[in-house]
Amino acid sequence: MNTRLHFRPRTVRSVAGRAKTLEQFGKNVRDWLHEVRKLTTRDGLAAAVSHRPPRLRDNFPGGRIADAFLAAQVEYLCRHSEIRPPKWTDSPEYVLDEPWFGYSDAPAGLRAILIRDAPAEFKNRNLFTTSEIEWQPKRGRPRKSLEEHREKTRLRQRRWSKINAEVLRVRKSKLKEMLAAGSGVPAGQLDKAYDPKSLAVYRNAEDRASISRRRSRR
After folding, report:
1. DSSP sequence for the chain
2. Which parts of the chain sit beneath pLDDT 70?
3. Of the residues 69, 88, 123, which one is the last residue of a structural domain?
4. Residue 202: inside a domain, yes or no?
5. Domain assignment of residue 102, given as a range
6. Total of domains in the chain
7. Do both 40 and 91 map to the same domain?
């Protein structure tokens, strides 16, 4: 069984906390963005980025780039989703001293394009690259987990059971009165004649009692 899907980072803290090298950081970012695509609400995105990730600048070569890139990516997602970026992204510690173009030997033509097209959230941190993902909250009701669906079903069944029991009780009481008055059957014998769990029996009995009363009035 492939368990890799179950261990993708779901927050920026996990992205940084599991990175031991710059290459592993890049893999973690791609895995996290895969989880971001599953989110359907702004609250879900805010929860994934709200906590400051551990700093990587002293952990491996290129750690400063990883810190700046993660902050830029988070701010970009928040801005384009119309939610306020977390406060930790405002820190000047996430700004590089020198420009970064994705790799050191980027040709001049490519650098010019990146300088022109890089989003402001990246440019402000001296990063000249583009976002790894475009994300917008989905319209309609938020997607619910299997546990939420099960709990909703349980509560709905419980409410229906209470309503059904009350309906049966009222119909039983009414039926006793109707049949005792219209057919002369003693009320104490109705429990044996009619099953209290069957709504159809009560409906038929009510109809018979109503017909009996109408005939007696003629």
Report:
1. ---GGGG---SHHHHHHT-SSHHHHHHHHHHHHHHHTT--SHHHHHHHHSSPPPP-TTTSTTHHHHHHHHHHHHHHHHHHTTSPPPGGGG-GGGS-SS-B-SSTT--HHHHHHHHHHS-HHHHTTTB----S----PPSSSPP--HHHHHHHHHHHHHHHHHHHHHHHHHHHHHHHHHHHHHT---GGGHHHHS-TT-HHHHHHHHHHHHHHHHHHH-
2. 1-6, 103-104, 134-144, 182-218
3. 123
4. yes
5. 4-123
6. 2
7. yes
Per-residue model confidence (pLDDT) at position 157: 87
In angstroms, the CA 67 to CA 44 distance is 22
Q: In this predicted model, what pLDDT tens digit does every residue of 66-75 receive, in sequence order?
A: 999 999 999 9
Do the Cβ atoms of 67 and 15 come closer than 8 Å?
no
Both 113 and 64 in a single domain? yes
Query: Are 107 and 213 members of one domain?
Result: no
Nearest one of 15, 22, 17 to 77, comparing CA atoms: 15
- Domain co-membership, 173 together with 119: no
Q: What is the pLDDT of residue 143?
A: 65
Distance of alpha carbon 199 from the chain centroid: 39
Contact 81, 136 (CB under 8 A): yes
Structural domain includes residue 133:
no
